[in-house]
Amino acid sequence: MWSITDKQVKPADSKQLYESVGAIHLHSTWSDGSLPIPEIADIGAQKGLDFLMFSDHHTLEPKRNGLEKWYGDILVLIGYEINDPDEINHYLAFRLDKEVESGISAQEYVKEVKRRGGIGIIAHPAEKRNSIEAYPPYPWTAWDAEGFDGIEIWNQISEWLEGVTRSNFLWRVWHPLRSIRFPVWEILQRWDELNKKRRVVGIGGIDVHAYEMKILGFIKFQIYPYKVQFKSIRTHFLTEKPLNNNNNKLSFKEAEQEIYNALSLGRCFVSNYYLGDARGFDFYCKESENRYPMGSRVKIKNNTGFYIFTPSPGYIRLLRNGKLISQKKGEELYEEVEKDGVYRAEVFKRKKGWIYSNPIVLEKM
Fold this sequence. Notes:
2 domains; two-stranded antiparallel sheet; single chain; disordered N terminus; 19-stranded mixed β-sheet
């Protein structure tokens, strides 16, 4: 539900919004993950997640096998990950029942996912590698593709791999959550520019595989197991109905629709759980008598007030078109603005990124 009560001003659509927290971009034994979907769902539920969104490589077979459903109190949605013939331009496709044709270009599969009514998200768009040849980078280069819905503004396994060197490898294996710092600044800049023209949703991806490795040739261990990575990057959706209210769950179809509606509208934010639980974060604007949540595109006549509330103290920043316009330490920030532009919130803790909101875009009437 809206975490901040304001009896004088209602959301523009006069509906309450309810927060659900989950993990996006998961791999299972249907491709190159190390555990089956039911077992991963059980781990996610133990870590307090409300939903999981799987995207195994090149296949929707787990969906056709009936694995997309409620597992107790955790909702599992299944899409899949596409790439082009050069092994780059990875794309997460959801809300599809059948795979698109293989071997086609990124421009073609982005267009085809959109034509079929699916939702497509660019995966690890600025991926680089400095020292691990066994795991090459898979960046996004097809920026002329038209119709993608979203972008991973933060991909945790990419960040982990990009910082690995021979000298710090063991430290990063034993302390993986300490390596989480920030999204790639280049992608945040591009995201701001894209939202000037149209809505492009930002999500966090964990890209979990839980790879098994051997030390000394016989000691097996997992790099970043599911139970650990579920405590890293999370995506929070604001839905119009609670997915699970006091064990009174929506039907699978209703819950699926709520998640995909929130994703399509950009009613979401990304958090680094290792720095603290971000449930209850709120970012909205008020113009006249209306209140607009994240993802809104608002025609304005008068000055507009932006409100940011955090569940615990942090270093709060309000940005316009990627430029800092206001900042404050604490649990809340208010700023009145008169210019149009792409506005979003960032919150830092311990000199690391904690929360990244989706933008609210103001447009002059």
